[in-house]
Amino acid sequence: MNTWPGKPARFGLDNLEKDSFSLMLQQLPGAVVKRKYVDGSYIGLWPFAVYVRSRINEAAQRLSAVSILNELNDWMKVGALPDLGPGRICHSLGMTLLPSVAADYNNGVVDYQAQYVMEYREGKR
């Protein structure tokens, strides 16, 4: 994700800055094996969420936070797929749940979340 040239901030893993603009990638439960082969290789799905935290004062800023998550999805469709290391190949990345408010705090900070899934191949196939 940090190779996305349009990213407005560096992605953290399971951590959002308290009161400032930040991005976070979080693994979601529910990783599944979509297809298994006799040789032990398989096609897997790895669900994850991306969060945008921002101080929101007006509607235009809310739309901007949602736009970031949609732009990330657009980049996933045309950008280079991640290198998962030996024995794993990423087939695709894409949004599975549209952006929505995940948390709205009293101090004007709002967290937006969108859910995505990575499809990958594990093994020699």
Which CATH C-level class is it?
A: Alpha Beta
Report the CATH topology name: STM4215-like
Task: List the helices and strands in order.
Answer: EEEEHEE
Give the radius of gyration: 16 Å
Total beta strand runs: 6
Structural class by secondary-structure content:
alpha+beta
Per CATH, the architecture is 2-Layer Sandwich
Number of domains: 1
Percent in strands: over 45%
Mean pLDDT: 88
Low-confidence stretches: none
Multimeric status of the protein: single chain
In whole angstroms, the N-to-C terminal distance is: 26 Å
Shape: elongated
Largest sheet: 6 strands, mixed
What does this molecule look like?
There is one protein chain. With 125 residues, the protein is an alpha+beta fold. It has one domain (11-122): STM4215-like (2-Layer Sandwich). The protein is 16% helix and 47% strand. It is built from 1 helix and 6 strands, in the order ββββαββ. The chain has one helix at residues 59-78; strands spanning 11-13, 22-27, 32-36, 42-55, 88-104, 109-122. Strands 1, 2, 3, 4, 5 and 6 form a 6-stranded mixed beta sheet that branches. β3 and β4 form a beta hairpin. The mean pLDDT is 88.
Give a quick summary of the entry:
By secondary structure, this protein is α+β, with helices and mostly antiparallel strands. It has one helix at 59-78; strands at residues 11-13, 22-27, 32-36, 42-55, 88-104, 109-122. The chain has 1 helix and 6 strands; from the N terminus they run ββββαββ.
